[in-house]
């Protein structure tokens, strides 16, 4: 017995020497065995960690201030509808109304119709002295130069005042009568004085002194009687009238005081529209 007890006592002492050195705990001995030299930065961190240990308590945990939790927004907080219908948006370009331009026919400027061409020349320049020529004679139309009208005597003075041996026209043949008729038909005049008269003779003569042998007296007049009828008792001058009594362009005896335009003629050959 004593031998067994002594054996166990020796074993316990050996185990105490093995597991305990200088009163240190087993955990301290293990730390000392595995401890290695550390660099300065690691040693500083280790010291910081050790400083956080207080006795055998757990490491102190840093406490951060609690962050407020975000609360979800309620849909109805802004009075929005519970359901949303997404309507597809169709983008259309703005419609611009442009004026419609319809093709227009070419603009034709209207102009007064030109008189039909004829062998005779019409007015031409208002200052012209001769407006037409026929059979080596020159003719002047007073209405082409002035709107004035004349009695038979005034008309004769107007013609002589033109110079170049102008005087009231004589119609001594059918061809000259056709020429004069063509003039009256194309010009806007209703009548004009000629050089025919019966003053002092009682018979019809031209200013040249020759008798009126060719004639174109009208079949009617103011009293419906053939011309000459001397209706006023002093119708001593011969005028040509254009359809005045619906009788065409015919001759009438007229009292010499009536005012009318005149046709003057000259035997001095001048070119048409001449001022000389």
How would you characterize the overall build of this protein?
The structure is a single chain. The longest helix has 18 residues, at 2-19. This protein has a 4-stranded antiparallel β-sheet, covered by helices on one side. With 276 residues, it is of the alpha+beta class. Helix content is 22%, strand content 12%. Mean pLDDT is 74; it is low at 31-36, 51-60 and 110-121. The protein is built from 5 helices and 7 strands; from the N terminus they run H-H-H-E-E-H-E-H-E-E-E-E.
In short:
This protein has 5 helices and 7 strands. The protein has 276 residues and is an alpha+beta fold.
List the helices and strands and how they pair.
Elements (H helix, E strand, L loop, with lengths): L1 H18 L6 H9 L5 H12 L80 E3 L2 E5 L10 H10 L5 E2 L5 H13 L4 E7 L39 E6 L6 E6 L8 E4 L10
Antiparallel strand pairs: 1-2, 2-7, 3-7, 4-5, 5-6
Descriptive key words:
276 residues, alpha+beta, four-stranded antiparallel β-sheet, three-stranded antiparallel β-sheet, 22% helix, rod-shaped
